[in-house]
Amino acid sequence: MAEIKVGLTQFLDFTLKSSAAKTNFVKNLKSQPEYHPIFDYWKQLRETVIKFHKNELPFY
């Protein structure tokens, strides 16, 4: 069986849903496409924030 990775937002969305909605959520989660950076809208922002924190750069 393949390992399924779930993000924090997906996990929180799941825990807040009712029983029937949880079933649909898992079904949709399993059928979504594999992660690919080209479709990640926020990737550049996340990487920039990480770079600023690592290098202790100012935000101004």
* H and E order: HHH
- Distance from N terminus to C terminus (CA atoms, Å) equals 48 Å
Portion in strands: under 5%
The computed structural class is: mainly alpha
Shape: elongated
| Percent range of helical residues | 55-70%
Rg on CA atoms, Å: 16 Å
Low-confidence stretches: none
Report the mean per-residue pLDDT as an integer: 87
Number of helices: 3
Number of strands: 0
Q: How would you sum up the major sheet?
A: none
Explain this structure.
This protein is mainly alpha-helical and 60 residues long. It has a domain at 32-60. Helices cover 57% and strands 0% of the residues. It has helices spanning 8-15, 19-31, 43-55. The protein starts with 7 loop residues before the first helix and ends in a 5-residue tail after the last helix. The mean pLDDT is 87.
Please outline what is shown here.
By secondary structure, the chain is mostly helical. It has helices at 8-15, 19-31, 43-55. Helix content is 57%, strand content 0%.
Defining traits:
60 residues; 3 helices; mainly alpha; elongated; single chain
Topology:
Blueprint: H1 8-15, H2 19-31, H3 43-55
